[in-house]
Amino acid sequence: MEERRDIFLWVLLVLSGAAFYYMMYSGYGWRALQQKQAARDEAKAVNEEILRQNQDILRTIDRLKHDPAYVERVARKDFGMVGKDELIYQFDNSKDVETAEIAPAGPPAGLKGPEPQQRLTPANAPTDAPHAP
Fold first, then answer.
1. Which residue has the higher pLDDT, 94 or 119?
2. What global pTM score does this model have?
């Protein structure tokens, strides 16, 4: 009788071990559950990001429909448009700012600059100019 009980316990132990291994490592066990939960959490995070992007797009659409200042800003920034009475100035940027030579102060070599103006005094006033009464 003792021998039957020992065999029964060994069989029960082996079956329990096999059931435990199946629950933990099979395609339907604990590891599979953990992987599926991780995939679910990742999908939730992606969905939340897409939802945030959709809300931003809806907010932009609403502003484009109802906010003239926003439409003007987008038109200026993205499409280079200008206002009705605005002037556009274009500058020749053919020389790079870093490589442009700086002109020396004063007139170019060999040329004289304008004479400094003298202050008019009665001594150096022109004689043919009419005098005020």
1. 94
2. 0.46
